[in-house]
Specification:
Elements (H helix, E strand, L loop, with lengths): L3 E7 L18 H9 L1 E3 L2 E2 L5 H10 L3 H4 L14 H6 L4 E5 L15 E3 L10 H18 L3 E6 L11 H6 L2 H4 L26 H30 L6 E7 L14 H4 L3 E4 L8 E3 L4 E2 L3 H8 L14 H4 L9 E8 L5 E9 L2 E6 L17 H9 L3 H12 L3 E5 L17 H18 L4 H12 L2
Helix pairs in contact: 5-8, 8-12, 12-13, 14-15
Length: 455
């Protein structure tokens, strides 16, 4: 019988938040154990750094402009989805949380589906554990392999212990889920805020709230994995953990920066992955999961997939064509259209902002909460921070970062004449990728290059 497949996702967890990816100690003990039992991928990226289209790309193995779900709309008719393909091999399928973020729901043919309210607003580890156990036991009784997508709603806002939680969730909703197993306060050493953010008191406060919510996400993972152990199916199950996008703060979620799309990918497959394995060379995209799951199930992938199987990498074998990764952005949850394209390799990050015209202003959900207002307040007395805030709102048509020297993308080199050769190389690679995938903005980008640089 093919392996069971357990896909666990976090909501808005940064790629460097888990301890096994360099994050603060004590935030993710369960994920750290899972990583010690399996393989981590240090250069894994989602296709697009916002929830619904990111998940749609995972479940179709296609870029958003090729599956119809560029923003918060349904996947196009006729595009194969993973659960329907796995059904051909006899798989039973279930989803816990984020049900409405895969549309149309009926296209997936879930055998079991529980929404956030049935799971303590997507934040109750016990509810996730019990639902997982029931699903696994039913599949065993039927003698069928299973695919379970367990989606934690943490660490998505509202963060644990914050005023936003009180404002957005009524008392009855808050009573339906527990506090994290560890809450991070001012006395906890979390190593400072992420380097792409200013180290301001309110930013640090929100970051600790975010870490507390990340710990509760880890509690959910622990409960689901406990159900796997208690049903005796762990040795027969391919387990994958990832986040759908980066932290919901400026310069992360809903953008194309490294910290926007990098995801903490962990894979444990007994007999296939090496305990404590690390793949820190190859760039992988989460559209690669669809063909990987098909290969694991012994199925041919449907025609039209954009991803490639990860099985060679899971076996510890090299795989060519993994020198760079591309990401996109189209639309915010509020329907704001900000077209972006990005190419990342082991040295440079290049971004084309189609929307940036010098006057249009960017606005997205990552600017709610404490961090953005704190940045604006501090900018009144700090010209460097004021310029960073202006840049965030307006950008420039092109950005280039030397990520070896500037991991947090603080110094844009697109206008540096000494980097012209690197910039041109990234442009040509992006142009070729857009042509190869039928990107609808191909002609726009080609015209931009011709008008602005004569390419």
């Amino acid at each position: 019988m093919p392996p069971n497949i357990l896909l666990i996702t976090a909501d808005d967890m940064g790629g460097d938040t888990p301890g096994c990816f360099g994050g603060p100690a004590e935030v993710t003990p369960t994920l750290d154990r899972l990583a010690a039992e399996g393989t981590t991928f240090g250069r894994a990226h989602v296709a697009i750094a916002v929830c619904q289209p990111s998940r749609s790309a995972i479940m179709t193995g296609r870029w958003p402009h090729r599956n119809g779900a560029q923003g918060f709309e349904p996947i196009a008719d006729g595009v194969p989805v993973l659960t329907r393909v796995l059904r051909e091999a006899g798989y039973m399928s279930g989803i816990l949380g984020k049900v409405e973020h895969l549309q149309p729901v009926e296209a997936f043919g879930w055998d079991h589906a529980l929404g956030m309210r049935e799971l303590g607003m997507g934040r109750d580890p016990r509810a996730y554990g019990e639902a997982s156990r029931r699903f696994m036991e039913e599949a065993a009784a039927r003698g069928r392999p299973w695919f379970l997508m367990a989606n934690a709603h943490d660490p998505h806002r509202p963060y644990s212990g914050g005023q936003d939680e009180l404002d957005r969730f009524p008392a009855e909703a808050r009573a339906s889920y527990p506090a994290p197993s560890k809450v991070f306060g001012p006395a906890d050493d979390v190593g400072g805020v992420p380097g792409f953010l200013p180290d301001l008191p309110e930013v640090a406060r929100e970051y600790r709230e975010y870490l507390s919510s990340s710990r509760r996400c880890d509690d959910v993972v622990a409960a689901v994995l406990r159900a796997l152990d208690e049903t005796g199916t762990a040795d027969d199950t391919l387990v994958v953990f990832l986040s759908d996008n980066g932290i919901a703060v400026p310069f992360a979620k809903a953008n194309c920066y490294l910290q926007s799309s990098r995801t903490p990918l962990i894979v444990r497959w007994p007999g296939m992955t090496r305990p404590g394995g690390r793949e820190d060379t190859a760039f992988v995209s989460m559209i690669d999961l669809f063909p990987t799951f098909c290969a694991a199930a012994g199925l041919p992938g449907p025609a039209g997939l954009d991803g490639r199987t990860l099985l060679p990498l899971l076996r510890g074998e090299p795989q060519d064509g993994r020198e760079a990764v591309f990401t996109v952005f189209h639309e915010t949850a509020a329907k704001g259209r900000y077209e972006m394209r990005c190419r990342l390799d082991d040295r440079f990050g290049y971004i084309w902002n189609e929307w940036s015209d010098g006057t249009r202003e960017y606005r997205a959900e990552n600017m709610t909460g404490r961090t953005w207002p704190a940045m604006l307040a501090a900018a009144s007395g700090d010209e460097r921070l004021a310029e960073r805030a202006r840049f965030y709102r307006h950008r420039t048509p092109e950005e280039l970062y030397d990520l070896r020297a500037d991991l947090h993308a603080l110094a844009d080199l697109a206008g540096d004449p000494d980097r012209r050769k690197d910039l041109d190389a990234a442009r040509q690679d992006l142009l070729a990728w857009m042509a190869g995938t039928g990107d609808p903005l191909l002609d726009t980008y080609r015209s931009y290059l011709q008008v602005n640089i004569g390419a």
